[in-house]
Design goal:
By secondary structure, the protein is an alpha/beta fold. 36% of the residues lie in helices and 17% in strands. It has a single domain, classed as TIM Barrel, CATH 3.20.20.100. A hairpin with a 6-residue loop joins strand 1 and strand 2.
């Protein structure tokens, strides 16, 4: 498995990272927990050494499942988790909170659920517009000084927000959605990360299932699956009219990939990894079959002609890639 450095940190990670949002069990369709747990160990055997999770996935379920699945192999991998939400007594997410004391307290919960003494990379999941960034950064600095975390960063932050954070510390990474159907990060965030040596962690690499090639015009989502609302991080990716056009693009991409003996999912992963600032492409893997398919994409390098053909397909089908659209925060 190809390895990449996250920003200017000492974290050397696999080009493909194991995303665990699907392990939430309450937000992302049905999942076999035993199969997902087995996939964690199979991923390590296949060379994947970065596992990305968050306390809000569930909430809490994904961290707990990952912690149990890693077991004694925890020391061999990079664990990334995210905090920055507040919960009521029933455990329901009731909004963002990145205040100093809250970040410290929530991190202790992450450590407990993950069954570990340290977190390799802790991220603030979404910007809390009610809390000054210098207060949040002070909490991250305190956690690092205490040895609770090795490095810290942010997720879903704009360039302006990253600049303010950098005045009060040093960001290792920004984790934001980036895929064939959502290229908003190319306008500002990716160039800024490249210039300032901040690692970029791409989530949604398979566009939340769209690039798996498994969807059809008859595909629907259960009510509790977040995709059932139609919008994805501010974009209408799962609204009916857009969805049908996107499926036509996926079919053409499938044909392009098949010419190389690859799948459309592998094409999507290779496309994301082709950007020079991407440290890791995060991909959900619910079983060993998906794991094997994803790992096989790591060393596929698309040519300039391939990328141009991909862009031509999008243009001909009238499907936007939202390069100039505003980031939803």
């Amino acid at each position: 498995m190809q390895k990449r450095r996250i920003g200017d940190s000492g974290l050397i990670c696999s080009a493909i990272g194991f995303g665990t949002w699907e392990m939430s069990t309450t937000q992302y369709g049905a999942i076999d927990v035993q199969e997902a747990s087995a996939a964690v160990n199979a991923a390590i055997d296949a060379g994947i050494n970065l596992f990305d999770t968050a306390e809000v996935y569930g909430p809490f379920h994904a961290e707990e499942i990952l912690g149990r699945a890693l077991g004694a192999r925890r020391k061999d991998v990079i664990v990334v988790t995210k905090v920055g939400f507040q919960y009521d007594e029933a455990g329901k997410n009731i909004g963002r909170n990145a205040k100093y004391d809250h970040i410290l307290a929530r991190t202790e919960g992450c450590l407990r659920r993950l069954q570990t003494d340290w977190i390799d990379l802790l991220l603030i999941h979404w910007p809390d517009h009610q809390t000054p960034l210098d207060e949040t950064m002070r909490a991250l600095e305190a956690l690092q000084a205490a040895g609770k975390i090795r490095y810290y960063g942010v997720s879903n932050f704009t360039v302006e927000m990253m600049e303010e954070c950098q005045r009060h510390g040093h960001l290792t990474a920004n984790q934001v959605g980036y895929n064939l159907f959502d290229r908003r990060m190319e306008a500002q965030v990716l160039p800024y990360c490249l210039q300032h040596n901040i690692g970029f962690m791409a989530y949604g690499t398979l566009c939340y299932g769209l690039c798996t090639g498994a969807f059809t015009p008859e595909t629907t989502f259960v009510e509790w699956d977040w995709r059932s609302k139609g919008r994805a991080f501010g974009l209408p990716l799962f609204e009916r009219e857009d969805f049908l056009k996107e499926l036509r693009v996926v079919e053409r991409l499938r044909t392009l990939a098949a010419g190389y003996g690859k799948s459309v999912a592998q094409l999507a992963i290779a496309w994301v990894l082709g950007h020079p600032v991407v440290s890791v492409a995060l991909v959900g893997m619910r079983n060993e079959r998906e794991l094997c398919e994803n790992v096989a994409a790591a060393d596929w390098q698309l040519t300039a002609a391939d990328r141009a053909e991909i862009d031509r397909i999008f243009a001909e089908e009238g499907v936007p890639t939202y390069v100039d659209a505003k980031q939803a925060i």
